[in-house]
Model the fold of this input.
Amino acid sequence: HRLQLAGGRSRCEGRVEMEQAGQWGTVCDDAWDLADANVVCRQLRCGWALHARDNASFGRGSGLILRDDVSCKGHEDHLWDCPATQKHDCSHKEDAGVVCSEHQQWQLSGGRDGCAGRVEVFFRGTWSTVCDSTWYEMEASVLCHMLGCGPPIERPSFNHTLPGKMLYECTSPQPSLAHCKWTYNKAAPCHQSRAAGVICNGM
Done:
């Protein structure tokens, strides 16, 4: 048995896919709820579940539908330890999904478009700013490319006005900031920092 999330913006968000006897398949959303989603998030080391999604909200999967009427209590170690039926009356338009607390997504706000502004990250259910203590060309470049905005041309500073603070350190190009070293709400490295910003060239 293996488990993964597909179709999301990070490895901690997406359509639930599991492998059984060498074949990958999906899970039907009948009776799919937060207790089921929590087991998935914990099994994938993605924290806890923020949302249990239904109706193929991360796109329709393919292949088999391996579980229906999943009814986890929430404490199980693996999704396949939960009571469920393997016979189903579902199609892939009912594929179940989850959003876990360790999912990170980013936006730039207050700029002229989506490729400029203050860096904000959604993490553990809330939006936070990013400390500029280690906000250099590499970090800005990872974010601009991930947003499909070309290379960074400026790194303006802003004020911290959101409840949380995130710090990123990238030593090489990565597919997203979540793949770099990061710390959340640690006071020392963020002391006297400003909120990081970036202007990408928007190409």
Summary: The first helix runs from residue 34 to 43.
